[in-house]
Design brief:
- One of its GO terms (biological process) is cysteinyl-tRNA aminoacylation.
- Belongs to the class-I aminoacyl-tRNA synthetase family.
- It is an enzyme of class 6 (ligase).
- This protein is α/β, with parallel strands linked by helices.
- The chain is built from 15 helices and 15 strands.
- The chain folds into 3 domains: 287 residues, HUPs (Rossmann fold), CATH 3.40.50; 97 residues, Four Helix Bundle (Hemerythrin (Met), subunit A) (Up-down Bundle), CATH 1.20.120.640; 47 residues, no CATH class.
- The strands form 5 sheets. The protein has a 4-stranded parallel sheet, with helices on both faces.
- Strand 1 and strand 2 form a beta hairpin.
- 39% of the residues are buried.
């Protein structure tokens, strides 16, 4: 089956045909770094991390760019409130972003450009738009003529009248039309952060930064441009308009947008004050459970956050971990032998099912269901009295590849190796039990549990795993 993607631009599933047979260019709009990210923000970054991994699995060389907006009105206000500078504030929350994403298993993009590092490219693009009649300057501000391009609104599929009535546009007497948007903002009194430009000191508007960075790192036309549904209008709509006017070429072949995160019956958003930050969540839950939760529904569907949902994900992770640990233990004593033909046939079937799920518009929910099938199959293998080592190895490889390398939900049991101190504690506990010092044995178990290590006493000896 060919990979099919739902393209917001056409509102249809389309076969994925990249501009190059071997290389895929992909740009995902990153955070505005004036605060910690919430779990709704994280859905974007976790899901498109899986998209990148799956494209690589499919044999593509993916060039992945994700930006940081490190200057805008919100950063300026937050810096003033905290008594710091915009660069210092941005640096703090960029570090916090990486801490959150590292915990959730999100791999770094090939490039993480910052808006403030690309001002010359933005000035160049704005100048070109003015020359071509798509933009105009008013007293140090520069605006894009939204209706100069006759297909404005094509991404959000709205008419000009609908855009005017539904858009949140600032009342600005400098604009020729309420839908016109800022490309360059004149420095306001009291603002310390500004750059020189042909129109005086100022800073870029929000939308132009992505157009400039896409052009610099990926070219005039890219394969995939992505982000949350909330960015479809006005941000992505305005990106298309200015980029295509700037270059005269299509901006992106496929537009992908993930659904909202809900808190109860309402959309989770900073403006409503109902956000739950990743920083706090990963102190309470296993970060892999948060990742699992974010992948548990089809990306275009809304998803509702609840404590119960995350607890269910933690239970699911225990099933994954138990299966890989049991496979690992069984491999230590398994007899040599090639994988049985029926085992290889079953793994091939699981591979087809996994690819079918992911090829159907990247359906991670169905792909996770296939992972559970693989875990069930692994448990059946381990329960058999005689299993060739090859069968166990191939099953472990399957779970690690599809559940770990692509979905990022399964840990390598090798990563769960005990430190010398913990090994010593387990040995001490065994000795205490032999000496019938059960109080000490229980105390050691409790200490390890507090450190996230669970012990299981089995006929084959003591097994352990992380929570």
């Amino acid at each position: 089956m060919t990979l099919q993607l739902y393209n917001t631009l056409t509102r249809e599933k389309e076969p994925f045909k990249p501009l190059s047979k071997e290389r895929v260019t992909m740009y995902v709009c990153g955070p505005t770094v004036y605060n910690y990210i919430h779990i709704g923000n994280a859905r974007v970054f976790v899901f498109f991390d899986v998209v990148r991994r799956y494209l690589q699995y499919r044999g593509f060389d993916v060039t992945y760019v994700q930006n940081f907006t490190d200057v805008d009105d919100r950063l300026i206000r937050a810096a003033a409130e905290e008594g710091t500078t915009v660069p210092e504030l941005a640096e703090r929350y960029i570090r916090a972003y990486f801490e959150d994403m590292d915990a959730l298993g999100v791999q770094r993009a090939d490039v993480h450009p910052r808006a403030t590092e690309h001002i010359p490219g933005m000035v160049e693009g704005i100048s070109r738009l003015i020359e071509k009649g798509y933009a105009y300057e008013r007293d140090g501000d520069v605006y894009y003529r939204a209706l100069r391009k006759d297909d404005y609104g094509k991404l959000s599929h709205q008419s000009v009248e609908e855009l005017k009535s539904g858009a949140r546009v600032e009342v600005d007497e400098k604009k020729e039309n309420p839908l016109d948007f800022a490309l360059w903002k004149k420095t306001k009194p009291g603002e310390e952060i500004a750059w020189d430009s042909p129109w005086g000191k100022g800073r870029p508007g929000w939308h132009i930064e992505c157009s400039a960075m896409v052009k610099q790192y990926l070219g005039d036309t890219i394969d995939i441009h992505a982000g949350g549904t909330d960015l479809c209008f006005p941000h992505h709509e305005n990106e298309i308009a200015q980029s295509e006017a700037w270059t005269g070429k299509p901006f992106a072949s496929y537009w992908l947008h993930n659904g909202y995160m809900n808190m109860g019956s309402e959309k989770m958003s900073k403006s409503l004050g109902n956000i739950v930050r990743v920083k706090e969540l990963r102190e309470e839950y296993n970060p892999r459970a948060l990742r699992y939760f974010l992948l548990s529904a089809h990306y275009r569907n809304p998803i509702s956050f609840s404590d119960e949902s995350i607890r269910q994900m933690e239970s699911g992770l225990e099933r994954f971990d138990t299966a890989t640990v049991n496979l690992s233990h069984r491999l230590e004593t398994a007899l040599q032998g090639e994988a049985a033909p029926e085992v290889m046939a079953r793994l091939d079937e699981l591979t087809r099912n996994f690819e079918t799920a992911m090829d159907d518009d990247l359906n991670t929910a169905n792909a996770i269901s296939v992972l559970f099938e693989a875990v069930h199959f692994a448990n059946e293998l381990v329960s058999q009295s005689v299993v060739p080592k090859g069968s166990l190895e191939k099953t472990m490889e399957w779970i690690q590849r599809y559940g770990g390398e692509i979905l990022g939900l399964v840990e390598d049991p090798g990563d769960q190796s005990l430190e010398a101190e913990i090994e010593s504690l387990i040995e001490e506990r065994q000795q205490a039990r032999k000496n019938k010092d059960f109080q000490r044995a229980d105390a050691i178990r409790d200490e390890l549990a507090e450190r996230g290590i669970l012990l299981e006493d089995t006929p084959q000896g003591v097994r352990w795993r992380k929570k």
